[in-house]
Amino acid sequence: MFPGVAGPASIDGSWTGRILLIGADELTDVTQRALGEAGARVTRLRNPSDPEIRQALGEEVDAVVVISRDDHVSLRIALVVEGVSPEVALTVTVFDRDVSTQLQLAVPKARVMSMADIVAPALAGPCLDDRLRSVSRTEEGFCGVQGGEDGPRLVPLESRAPGLFERLLANLGSLLRPFELSAKILMAGLVGFHLILLIDIVATAIVLDESLIDAVYSATKTVVTVGPNPHVDDAPGWFKIFSSAMMLSALGLTALFTAGVVNRILDRRLTAIVGQRSLPRKDHVVVVGLGQVGLRLCLLLRELGVRVVAIESELGADYVARAKDYGIPVVIGRGGSRFVLRRLGLERALALAAVTSDEIENISIVVAARGRCRELRTLMRAGRGDVTNETRSLLKLGMVRDVYRIGGTLLAAVALGSDAVEAFLHEQTVYLVAPGGQIEAFGGAPAAAAGP
Domain 118-165+272-441 falls in which CATH fold? Predict the structure, then answer.
């Protein structure tokens, strides 16, 4: 039996109930296979109309699973199921947390889940440590899930939250090494202007024998062209030329600084010079692919105290604006471009996670990243076992996570009555994690240690 499963079972412990499965994507295919392996009788509707759903519910059904990438489709189908058979156990996939909350209020008995939330812990764990299969949220905080001779177990997870001094150093590094061209122009103008001012102060104090305060005042007035320094009129000729060069240089650098400020005000900015959206330069994770999974992975890593930067190929992608609202720095460009990767400091990064929905693209991203930094820890999202297994054996790309198998198996377990909240893959077996931290393989393998 499966952990927490309740329902019709045969003598050998397999589940014999009937499941109505609604969905047309790869995640639904995997869920159907997992339900079949458990012994459930599955009726599947791919893109049903309301009358077809009502007709399917007219027969005996123990549970309904609704899977869709469109939250509004999931919401509509769930409301139809609730209206026809309010007593039937219902599992629904919804990504948007506002839609999820509203659905939970409308259908209190429904178990609302997100594919992105299911697989994000299994992707985050390997980004922190090669030995981690996943991370698990407990009442005391986060734990790592690590494999062992007796099976997977929970282990303490070292906090990576940066202190005040580390944050100051990170902001200073972002200031000195800005990412965007407009930021480089702005900082070049600002730093250059102050350098000219400092040189002029020192020269004025030495050549004209002025006090430090008088030198600061005179040099500042001269450099910003508010007024001349009368003492320069009696200075040597070379100093007059020097002072003129300083004023002209300051004028040019002021124009450069102003251009950078105007550019940053008028253009849409996805990274900042300092603060939460500044581009990390050390001990960060590069997440390529800002879809549902990529966004949830970024948020989870940041919750774990790890700084992240996301790469997305399209400026108008659905979750770019949402990532900006969450304070996640986003770089627009191809994840497989060595030019883009070179600017992200891969040699100082913790890991790179290629989590686009295109498996072939993920392979090319990982190959490009490892070509840039061979020692970099890489993680690749997969969903079609034949392609990934062959590529991994040939190129040894690093860690591979079959997100559809992880997500589909957990959805199947929940449909069968399990109270599991997390899942991960270890040695070709999907394990479920219960709310109390108990770990058990899907299919009833012996449970591993529940705590560190």
Answer: Rossmann fold (3.40.50)
